[in-house]
Amino acid sequence: xxxxxxxxxxxxxxxxxxxxxxxxxxxxxxxxDIILQNIPEYNGIEQRLSLLSDSWRQEITRMERSIEDLENxxxxxxxxxxxxxxxxxxxxxxxxxxxxxxxxxxxxxxxGEYFSTQKELLEPIQRTIFDALTRVASRLEYDFVFDxxxxxxxxxxxxxxxxxxxxxxxxxxxxxxx
Length: 178
Prior knowledge:
The protein is mainly α. 71% of the residues lie in helices and 4% in strands. A two-stranded parallel ribbon has the order 1-2.
């Protein structure tokens, strides 16, 4: 009975120390979108990616029109075709659709050129932001830092915990737009 009481007391003390420790954790956040907007190289990267994707989208539009023309021609002349010619034209249309799908996948798919180029161009900037964040969080003794951009949204976040400005200063960026 005394042994059980000792175990229970031990676990209660352990949990109370953990609760006190959790209360002492320091949490902050940054907004990486704001940081990126203040990095001059980022605008050039965005423009470069936009030009690249625009040219690919134009090619996709051209391919879609070509498929549409093939389909319209087929529908207009289908009754004149022999069975063999009908199958041949349907195969041409199917081949063109497959080529379009393959092109879209190559350019914009999860492993496509757009995302690999984006990763290649943004990785050095992201690494710089992360290194600056690590130095700031370490120096100010933060336990956790969240990125407020994209999917993570706070319903409330006190401005005292916003490390965005300090990370930009660590990177040598003047956040005032000057």
